[in-house]
Every structure is written in structure tokens, then in C-alpha cells.
Amino acid sequence: MLDFLNPETLYQIIYQFVFQLTLAVTAPLRPNSDIYWAYLLSALLLGILVTAVQHARTSTQENTAEDKSVSFLKGFCKKHFAKTLWTHPSALLDMRFYFVNAIVFPCLFAPIALQSPAVVDVLNNISNNWVGVTESVHPASWWDLDLLSITAVKVIYTALFFVAYDGGRFVAHSLLHDNKYLWEFHKIHHSAQVLTPFTSFRVHPVDLIIMVSVPALTTGFVTWLFVCFVSKDINFYTLLNLHIFICLFNCVDNLRHWNVWLTYPAPFDRWLISPAHHQLHHSAAQEHWGCNRGFELAIWDRLYKTIITPSKTPMNIKLGLGDEDLTGWSTLAHLYLNPFKSLFKQAHNLKKA
Ligand SMILES: [Zn+2]
Ligand SMILES: [Zn+2]
Questions:
Q1: Cα(134)–Cα(201) distance, rounded to whole angstroms?
Q2: What number of other Cβ atoms are within 10 A of residue 159's Cβ?
Q3: Residue 275: closest CA among 231, 239, 314, 330
Q4: Is the pLDDT reported for residue 352 higher than 90?
Q5: How far is the CA of 320 from the centre of ligand 1 (A)?
Q6: Residues 30-39: pLDDT tens digits?
Q7: What are 239's strand-pairing partners?
Q8: Quick one: which ligand is closest to 186's CA?
């Protein structure tokens, strides 16, 4: 039990509060944050490029090139930096939730979430103690690998780790949609009425635990296979200290939650989830519910038959939870407590029945 009158305990609480808040404020300076400045900048540049192409296709021949670029930039700012978008109550709630959850999640919930290295340790213990497989020390001690083979193994590990990570995220997201109890927690993300990059953080701590733990299991398993059968020093290729593919996709991913319509050209739109795929995932229309659950690779949605390919021209999508009244999702207390209230109600109804 925490003794709040103990100066040491108080110091620890205040230290954690200030530390987590500082991390949240300085997130744009850290590449492991979704809102790292370079990812935001690349999303902005891509947004301008995509909108310019769409604008060029639809604008008339009469105006001069200079007129067109001025009216385009004006139109771009008017639509994508609109006051009605960025100061919409739903967008402001996303920002408040970002700061509060930046303290609440790491202090109260993160210790429960699984981490990939811990999964590797558990699997190592099982294989060492129960099955009798010992982890290798270095590739050279196993197969006497040359530099080319080590590079090949590293490329394969980099690719498999990413597939496992993306597949794990798809499974976690599908659980959140298909399990009626977990859906109560995931509803918070879908209750957003407008999308800005801060909507990525509108995720209930319970939802986050699932979204962190399932990929930790899948990537932990893949890493264990390599640690066990190739080398315990195995690592993937990195960029800015992140998995190279995760880092590259981060340059596009902020467009998932912004009113810029980016689709990928064929045949890439069959293999990758574009930001427009994800915007369709947020649609309140019943025919779109539960579609496009993937994050980067489209193979999972195609296998699970939940893929809906967005049209190349921007679609007019009403966001939200379908016919549900969204006024009940307008405060921080709603976002944190609504799922528990719903579950309590369901349990109470079950008892009565
Ligand atoms: Zn989303
Ligand atoms: Zn979802």
C-alpha cells in the first residue's frame, strides 16, 4: 500500500508526474514518438503533394499557373488547417487525453503490458530448461557464417520481425473489434468525430495494453527463433534507432488521422494499408464497420476478408460510432470510465436475466 504521507513516496509520485509530462511535451524531438517533427513534416509535405495532384486534376484551364498555386495553398490551409477541425471539441479532447494518458498509462498500466525481450527470456527459459535447446553464442560457432550470409540472415530477420509486428497488431486490433467486452474499450478511438494526428493517442489504456502485448508475443517468438537457432546477438536494420520499416512507415502514418486523402497506386494498394484505408476504418457507415484493421500490410485484411479498398478520389466519410449519440464521449471522464460503466451494465443485465 502506498504511504502518501511518506516524503519519499511523495517525491517519487511528483518525479514520475514531471518526468512523464516532460516526455509528452518533448515527444516531437524523439524519433520513437509518432509525432516526431520529421514524421509530422513528411506527412505535411506528402499532404501538400497529394492535394496538389488532386487539385491539378480538378482545376480549370482558365487561371494562370501563379493564380493556381496561390489558390491551391489557400485552399489547402483552409481545409486542412481549418479552425473548425483543429479546435473541434473532439480534437481538443484528443489533445487533453494525450497529455493525461501520457502520465496515466506509463505509471499505472504499462507494467502490465508484455514486452518483446521479456517474451524472448521466457521462451529461452522454457527451451533451455524443459526442452534442452541451448541458445547459440555467435553465428560463427554454429554455421561459420561468412559476411554475406550474416547480411542475408539480418535481412530475413528484419523482414520477419516486421511481418510478426504488423500481424500481431492486426490480431490485437481484430480482438478489440470482435470481442464485445474489448470493443467497449476500443470504442474510445472510434468515438472521434474529427481526425488529427492526436487521434492516434485517443486509445484507452486497456486497448493500449492489448495493442502492445500481442505484437510483443509475435515479435518475441520470431526473435527467440533467431536467438535460439542463429545468434543471440541478432538485430534488425535500424534507422533513427528504430526498426527501419517502422521508421519509414512513420513518415506516412500521421496521414491516417488527418483529412488528407492518400491512397497508394495499384498494385501497392492491394498489398499496403494506405492512410485512406484507415480513414474508411473510422467511418460510421454500417457497411464500413470493422473494415481495414491492418496498419501497414494489407495481407491480413485480405485473408480475414475485412479489406475495403478506398476510392482514388476523396470519399465523404461521416466519422464515429454509427447511430450512437457521441455527446456521451465528450469529456476525459467519459473516455476513461465509459467502458467500465458499459461492462458493469452488461454484467448487471446478465445477472438479472
Ligand atoms: Zn484510427
Ligand atoms: Zn478500430
A1: 41
A2: 13
A3: 314
A4: no
A5: 11
A6: 999 999 999 9
A7: 242
A8: 2
Is 244 in contact with 237 (CB distance < 8 Å)?
A: yes
The stretch 291-296 carries a mean pLDDT of 97
CA distance 97 to 82: 21
Query: Rounded to the nearest whole angstrom, what is the distance from the C-alpha of residue 259 to the centroid of ligand 1?
Result: 12
**Main-chain dihedrals φ then ψ at residue 292, nearest 5 degrees:** 45, 65
Q: For residues 170 and 278, is the Cβ–Cβ distance under 8 A?
A: no
Tell me the ligand closest to 199's alpha carbon: 1
Q: Which segment of 131-140, 163-172, 218-227, 325-334 scores lowest on mean pLDDT?
A: 131-140
Q: From ligand 2's centre to the CA of 290, what distance in Å?
A: 7
Find out whether 189 and 207 touch, Cβ atoms under 8 Å. yes
Predicted TM-score of the model (pTM): 0.89
| pLDDT digit string, tens, across residues 218-244 | 999 999 999 888 887 788 999 999 999
Contact of 118 with 195, CB cutoff 8 Å: no
51 closest CA partner among 260, 312, 265? 260
pLDDT band at residue 135 using 50, 70 and 90 as cut-offs = low
Residue 277 has which C-alpha cell?
A: 484505408
44: cell is: 505535411
Tell me the C-alpha distance between 246 and 243, whole Å: 5
Q: What is the pLDDT of residues 89-118, one digit of tens each?
A: 999 999 999 999 998 888 887 888 899 999
Q: In 3D, which of 300, 292, 274 has the Cα closest to residue 218?
A: 300
